[in-house]
Amino acid sequence: MLSNTPIWDDGQSLPLSPLDGDVETDVCVIGLGGSGLTALDELTTMGRRAVGIDARGIAPGAAGRNGGLLLGGTVDFHHDAITVIGRDRAVGIYRETMDEIRRIDEQAPGAVRHTGSIRLSSGAGEDTDITRQRTAMLADGIRCELYDGPLGHGIFMPDDACFNPQQRCHALARRVIAQGAQLYTHTSASSYSATEVHTARGTIRCAQVIVAVDGRLETLVPELAGTVRTARLQMLATAPVAERLFPAPMSARYGFDYWQQTPDGSVAFGGGRDHSVETEWTNDAEPTEKIQGYLEQALREQLQVTAPITHRWAASVSYTETGLPVFQELHPGLWVIGGYSGTGNAMGALCGRAAARATSGETTAFARLLVNHG
Questions:
Q1: Does the residue 224 lie in any domain?
Q2: Residue 338 resides in a domain
Q3: How much is the CA Rg of the chain, to the nearest whole Å?
Q4: For 193, left (φ over 0), alpha (ψ -120 to 50), or beta?
Q5: What is the distance between the alpha carbons of residues 27 and 39, in angstroms, rounded to a whole number?
Q6: Number of H-type helices and E-type strands within the chain
Q7: Which of 38, 162, 264, 345 has the lowest CB atom count within 10 Å?
Q8: For helices 165-178 and 34-45, angle between their N-to-C axes, nearest 10 degrees
Q9: Under a CB-based contact definition with an 8 Å cutoff, are residues 142 and 156 in contact?
């Protein structure tokens, strides 16, 4: 088994140090993934002093180890989201995620590719489901087209995109540092409240705190046990393939499998969690032989990719029953965001932005969609 290193990791890291001593700030953000960094960006844009910490580094979890897909909506396909959360909320959230993809592109120039995405059918049953998805999307003014080509048939969403998730997070970290935020890596929060965050080598005193963590969220915030549940998602990647096999990020088998071909021709392929559901509800973030074996077989037999495998990795994410993220003021001045159900690239950024605004008593359209259930 190859080391647990994502294909996105280029070996470059920002030269950040652990916190050593006490500091004072307006808002402390715990977690330096996509949502935490976006919260810091919004805070500094608002003119607020901000400190961000992470137990490891910049985007060490799912934010830097995911499949690099930027998709509209929630974890559910649009017609299913309508059933779960209602049409108005489903449409509103879809539009918010589309706007956020454009913001991510602006914040991390060169990281995002506006390719659209393709959902492929795995058989007659999924044909029917894709028809339902397309009908619902067109009825709500969301662009989509039938796809029929050498890869199979399904549905094409032209407004989706893909990116290098680590490149995005590193660009965002440099941006918030330039805007005045203080970032500390290898700095765990041993305990925290709305006004103090204690670490091994110093205390951060602040007016408010944002906990911006996805995987293992229920461990850091025990009050959320039963609301969120951590799962392991696994991926592999190949050496570059000369031929452009996949014009856009793809998904199949109702979204359980997903992949993209990177600009250099490598194929990054993930999924298969449904082949061992119970073992994948875990806080362990190491690849397993069972899921990696499935991914390798599907890569060879379904995708017809023969290039050697160069990377295998896993990451922890948190799921909720509704597919909507956690966006909650747990105690006055203590905000918690996470539980993105495998769709944290745009959804997490929206939560980070909303949490930053909430610390100043403001709200966003996305926040209203989350908290208003009517």
A1: yes
A2: yes
A3: 20
A4: beta
A5: 10
A6: 10, 21
A7: 264
A8: 30
A9: no
